[in-house]
Amino acid sequence: MRSLIVLARLLDYPTLALQQAADEMRAVIEAESHLPWVRRQSLMQWIERIAESDLLDLQADYVALFDRGRATSLLLFEHVHGESRDRGQAMVDLLAQYRAAGFELDARELPDYLPLFLEYLSTRPEEVIAQQLGDIAHILARLTARLEEREADQALATATLLALIGAEDEITEHQKQVREEKRDDTPAALDAVWEEEAVRFSASSDQDCAVRSAAGQRRARQRQNEKERAEPVRIIDPATSVGRESHSH
């Protein structure tokens, strides 16, 4: 399902290559028969906004949305297991699932990173896609409610995933709870997390800690931004590739 690759790209860190692929992504969404026209139109309008926006502004907004606090994390198991040992085992199990399907990945992202998970699903039969999206529907619904609360376009992507399996109604169940939540991306909340992590720090070095964190990975990608600008985003038939140089199956 090529639309899953587009949604994965839309949820990933924005690059010039993403902007340059706007026409191709719009064509994929327009042809997606599993979605009603109104939803396809909303996604195509978002793609147009991405293409026309200043790239640095897009990147700054993305970092502010996903790298400050954990409420909007795109790491699926963080919403379920937090930092417990259960998360590690869940990662191992998911990685084994990828490999059993012939989907190999490098160390760039953790296995539960949502855009990566969507790339994997794009290679699976429709019944598997429906079952596995259903398994994370509660996470997607809570994430969508939080993104909507912050008026983020990325809510269109997560809501679309729920629409693909007819589970949009689950978003409503989480909206009231999200409105009552304390934001974890305020300066005070971020300071409290920093103090807690400083006490629990156990990485072998600052560099190791930075590489393991989502924010650290984002900063690493920013340092390679110029290189990425020269590489086109490819939206390719899932039967042959997921559209990323770093992943193959």
Automatic annotation (TrEMBL):
Segments of this protein annotated with the region Disordered: 202-249
Keywords: Nitrate assimilation
Molecular function per GO: metallochaperone activity; unfolded protein binding
Gene Ontology BP terms: chaperone-mediated protein complex assembly; nitrate assimilation
InterPro entries per record: DMSO/NO3_reduct_chaperone (IPR020945), NO3_reductase_chaperone_NarJ (IPR003765), TorD-like_sf (IPR036411)
Keyword check for RNA-binding: no
Domain of life, per lineage: Bacteria
Feature: compositional bias, Basic and acidic residues: 223-234
Coiled coil regions in record: none
Keyword Amino-acid biosynthesis: no
Name of the protein described by the UniProt record: Respiratory nitrate reductase chaperone NarJ
Organism encoding this protein: Kushneria sinocarnis
